Amino acid sequence: MKLTDLDLIVTAPPAPGWGGRYWILVKLSTDTGVTGWGECYASSIGPEAMTHVIRDVFERHMAGENPENIELMFRRAYSSGFTQRPDLTVMGAFSGLEIACWDILGKDRDRPVHALIGGKMNDRIRAYTYLYPLAHHRMKDFWTSPEMAAEAAADCVARGFTAVKFDPAGPYTLRGGHMPAMSDISQSVAFCKAIREAVGDKADLLFGTHGQFTTAGAIRLGQALEPYSPLWFEEPIPPDAVEEMAKVARAVRIPVATGERITTKAEFAQILRAGAATILQPALGRAGGIWEMKKVAAIAEVYNAQMAPHLYAGPVEWAANIHLAASIPNILMCETIETDFHDRLIKGAIRVEDGFITPPTAPGLGIEVDEDLARAHPYTGTGLHLEMQEAPCDYVNGNAFEGGAPASEPDGTGDTD
């Protein structure tokens, strides 16, 4: 069996766009007629340019190769251009292609992917979700309203979730880490207080940040949140400053989690060695793929650390996350995004039920991609999958983060249909 052809679809989820502005889906074919699907997570270049990178990686390192030879193909991509070091864009391309190879192998052997990477360790996987506006919420108000967040959290608990994530802590700016405004700290405390009162001990609080603070600023914020016992403090400073993140971890009595912008075992191992985080959040469509993250999970075991695969993408990456989670002993939970478009794109093959995910038993990733639906929603915008703002933190008027997607409805409601 050899890899022969690559097809790419850049699809845009309908407003409000939970999961990013677009998802890059890859479809690989073999000379035996077996096809497999993968997903390349957000990159630092636009989707049109990224499709050329993906094609180059496929044609240069994978075309004509047996899809079984994942280790060989990874080493080719990782070493490309005399590098042998993590490259965000190349790994983003390779990761989606690697996921598609596992889908092919599972279908060829009539086995789910988790059966090929160590077998099923977990019959159920704990799921978590971001807090999103309910149907009656005004979206533009939701992101700064502790009361609306608490109502959304209570709704999540009523649906079976035992963990909810939220991010009220101010802007992500291209300027690097900043000192949070006192109003941002007060607002973050208010969110934690309201959500904790709404859910009690029925759910863990997952405090999301995205590398926006200085070391000192992260410590100030984290210490203010300690009374509400969040399960994690996510990526409190930019991901390249490993020793500085370790200072935060030592100073704050909340477990630090990180990983959505990190690739390969080389970078994750640095995090573990430094004691910078005890919860790793790889995005499998960027971090190196399923096999590479299976290795990271094994390294994490040595450090008594847990895995919580990240998802701000489409359901194909989600399926890959679930197969990894099913096969490892140190899974904490998996992020999920429940929208009609996510569900329809994989024809309801995987769902969250009472706050948990049952790993699929069908061959490969266990999903069927609705190719017509994906092609019917092409991305026509100019923005990147996610973007940081250029303006600095506003210390006078306050700050708001709109959940990764700007409010697109004229009336500002939270209707996501």
Describe the structure in your own words:
The model is unreliable at 409-417 (pLDDT under 50). It contains 14 helices and 13 strands. It has helices at residues 47-61, 70-79, 88-109, 113-116, 139-142, 146-158, 182-199, 215-225, 242-251, 264-274, 290-302, 315-327, 340-345, 371-375; strands at residues 3-11, 23-30, 35-40, 125-130, 163-166, 204-208, 232-234, 256-258, 279-280, 306-307, 334-335, 352-353, 356-357. With 417 residues, it is an alpha/beta fold. Helix 6 runs parallel beside helix 7, helix 7 (182-199) packs parallel to helix 8 (215-225) and helix 8 (215-225) packs parallel to helix 9 (242-251). Strands 4, 5, 6, 7, 8, 9, 10, 11, 12 and 13 form a 10-stranded mixed beta sheet that branches. It has a 3-stranded antiparallel beta sheet with strand order 1-2-3.
Query: How would you characterize the largest beta sheet?
Result: 10 strands, mixed
What percentage of amino acids are in beta strands? 5-15%
Structural class: alpha/beta
What global shape is seen?
globular
- Whole-number mean pLDDT: 94
- Rg (C-alpha, Å): 20 Å
Report the oligomer.
single chain
What topology emerges from the helices and strands here?
Layout: E1 3-11, E2 23-30, E3 35-40, H1 47-61, H2 70-79, H3 88-109, H4 113-116, E4 125-130, H5 139-142, H6 146-158, E5 163-166, H7 182-199, E6 204-208, H8 215-225, E7 232-234, H9 242-251, E8 256-258, H10 264-274, E9 279-280, H11 290-302, E10 306-307, H12 315-327, E11 334-335, H13 340-345, E12 352-353, E13 356-357, H14 371-375
Parallel strand pairs: 4-5, 4-11, 5-6, 6-7, 7-8, 8-9, 9-10
Antiparallel strand pairs: 1-2, 2-3, 4-13, 12-13
Helix pairs in contact: 1-3, 2-3, 6-7, 7-8, 8-9, 10-11
